[in-house]
Amino acid sequence: MSVSELIYDWNTVEPQLHKPERHIGFDDETLRDGLQSPSVCEPSVEKKIELLHLMDALGIDTADIGLPGAGGTHAAGVELMAREIGPHSQE
Predict the structure, then answer these.
(1) How many domains does the chain have?
(2) Which domain, by its residues, includes 73?
(3) Distance between CA 29 and CA 32 in Å, rounded?
């Protein structure tokens, strides 16, 4: 038996990509869960708002923007982000 009979070479297969017949949603949690690492510096609210607009431009459906129940600056930042991306912000 030859080596080519023993080993299947996936590199010779032509890829067949099929568009899904349904919407695939994307939810980003980097503005919340990504900040829980001890080695991460928390970006400013202005930078987070910029990131939210970039996520929107990429077609990301939803984003977890934080935990307002944490109080203080976290709650104020979450409110600012929510107001920026909320339905009335487009008017």
Answers:
(1) 1
(2) 22-90
(3) 5
Burial 35-70 (b: 16+ CB within 10 A, else e): eeeeeeeeeebeebbebbeebeeeeeeebebbeeee
pLDDT tens digit at each of 91 positions of the chain: 888 888 888 888 888 888 889 999 999 988 875 556 677 777 889 999 999 999 999 999 999 998 877 778 888 888 999 999 887 655 5
The pTM for the full model equals: 0.66
Q: Are 26 and 59 in contact (CB under 8 A)?
A: yes
- CA dist list (Å): 72 to 15, 36, 43, 59, 68: 51, 17, 16, 31, 8
